[in-house]
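User: Can you predict the 3D structure for this chain?
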Amino acid sequence: MAAALYFQCDMSEPALWGRLGGRAVAAYSSRSPFKETVNEDAAAVIPWDEHSAVLAVADGLGGAARGEEASRRAIQELADAIDRADRQTSQLRTAILDGIESANGAVMRIGAGAATTLAVVEVTIGGPDGDLARTYHVGDAGVLVCGGRGKVKLLTTAHSPVGYGVEAGLIDHHEAMHHDERHLVSNVVGAADSRIEIGAAAPLAKLDTVLVASDGLFDNLTVAEIVSLVRRGPAATAAQRVAQAARERMLGAAIDLPAKADDLTLLVMRRG
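Assistant: Here is the predicted structure, written as structure tokens:
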């Protein structure tokens, strides 16, 4: 199947990209409910071969200039690097790293303080080593993998002071959502000192769900809430369910819980 790139989207419902080894991929992206400017998130589903694909979400920094251009450039550079790679002699991992490095240079060349976060997951279904997922991320866009019974099997650490606090066990996810500095990011694409965090290859069970999302999701729903909404049903239904809950939270549906109106982008891969 062809790659799908999502720029400046304002979807009312998820779009189904297709299937990889029996697992469907659904995409959802919309701008913040309280703004009139364009959605500064971007995303892509990029096939590599019959067994492997790349899911990516970029979130242009809203507080920096030209956030939409930064996220779009990052996704486009990643897609171009994967497209250029020779399937016979290159590894997908190398193509992804080349793409992220190219993205960093491209965003730096925009100037004006442009920057974006980026979360990427390489998924292999039915390969010689079984079903696997490997993450690559810069910033606080994230990747989550959960099992059919709700167990969190993989969750990337946000590159932020609060994210590191959660990882160190100093604060929990609920406290993090209430923290005054939860929106600060310490690592971005578009900086001379940008760094790529690479995860180990993680096995995927048949009923596992893979989610890649901008912080518009993680700043509005707890991990437990996300898992309960995304772990069941067809991919498009799960994506719609979690997107709707996040949008309702942004609109103040639960006044006792923290909410941050923001652009919202997510990709969901699961069976069904």
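Residues 232 and 258 are 25 Å apart (CA to CA). The mean pLDDT is 91.
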